[in-house]
Amino acid sequence: MRRLTVIVPLICSVAAALVAGFLPPAQAAVKERAVCVNAAIQERPAIDGYRIVWQDKRSGNYDIYMKDLLTGLETPICTALGDQMYPDISGDIIVWQDHRSGHWDIYTYDLRSATLSVVLSGPDVIHPAIWGGIVVCELHDQ
């Protein structure tokens, strides 16, 4: 069975890990902690700061979920029809490829403004990545 885990302090400083509750004060060694414990398939995690996004198949198709490591809150980001896959995150923006239209498009979701946007629409654009305000992806012309 696949499961998502976070390895601390590889993703942050030991001091930040202590604040986040991942390490007890007396222990400053690497510790593994589950990100998602749902029995369905979770794949392709991406991380920025204390937020992790991944594709999740708990509904029968792939959807995008996020977990805030500071609060422990798990949030469904997109559960639209069709598959949503290959998420990435930078700051407050999450990007993924989305098949709700019958072809692959690139979508973003702004956590701060709760705004969903289509960044690039078909014919088939896949494998997005984001850094700051820049989104890159592969374009497959028919």
Walkthrough of the structure:
- The chain is mainly beta and 142 residues long.
- It has a single domain (39-139), classed as Neuraminidase, CATH 2.120.10.
- Helix content is 5%, strand content 49%.
- Strands 3-4-5-6 form a 4-stranded antiparallel sheet, with no helix packed on it.
- A hairpin with a 6-residue loop joins β4 and β5 (63-68).
Write a brief structural summary:
The chain is built from one helix and twelve strands. It has one helix at 14-20; strands at residues 5-8, 31-34, 42-48, 51-56, 63-68, 74-78, 84-90, 93-98, 105-110, 115-120, 125-131, 134-139.
Supply database-style keywords.
single chain; 142 residues; mainly beta; Neuraminidase; four-stranded antiparallel beta sheet; 1 helix; 12 strands; 5% helix; globular
Question: Any chance you could write out the topology, listing elements then pairs?
Answer:
Elements: E1 5-8, H1 14-20, E2 31-34, E3 42-48, E4 51-56, E5 63-68, E6 74-78, E7 84-90, E8 93-98, E9 105-110, E10 115-120, E11 125-131, E12 134-139
Antiparallel strand pairs: 1-2, 3-4, 4-5, 5-6, 7-8, 8-9, 9-10, 11-12
